[in-house]
Design brief:
seven-stranded mixed beta sheet; globular; mainly beta; four-stranded antiparallel beta sheet
């Protein structure tokens, strides 16, 4: 099971920290990813982190603004989002890649 939290409404230039709590599987064995889906658009891969946390990848549009991290002792993965832009508005999902598990999503809205 995956459960996201931390979404909300923020002004452009602001920050949010999303968290995803995992249970029921071997969290430390799988790549974890954050995706997002904006209204009328396909779901997009935003960031990924390998099982040990030492390797990360990002979509170009968030590089330098978002940071993915994980705590294998607490079975959590986080997405720190800074300098948010209106185009970051979407429902954000975490995914346990090896298992194909998805969370229920958390809404992020960037608007003045």
């Amino acid at each position: 099971q995956l459960r996201e939290s931390g979404g909300g409404l923020v002004q452009p230039g602001g920050s949010l920290r999303l968290s995803c709590a995992a249970s029921g599987f071997s969290f430390s064995s799988t790549v974890m990813s954050w995706y997002r889906q904006a209204p009328g658009k396909e779901r997009e891969l935003v960031a990924s982190i390998n099982s040990g946390g030492g390797s990360t990848t990002y979509v170009d549009s968030v590089k330098g603004r978002f940071t993915i991290s994980r705590d294998n002792a607490r079975n959590t993965v986080t997405l720190q989002m800074n300098d948010l832009k209106p185009e970051d508005t979407a429902v954000y999902y975490c995914k346990a890649v090896s298992y194909g598990y998805w969370g229920q999503g958390t809404q992020v809205t960037v608007s003045s």
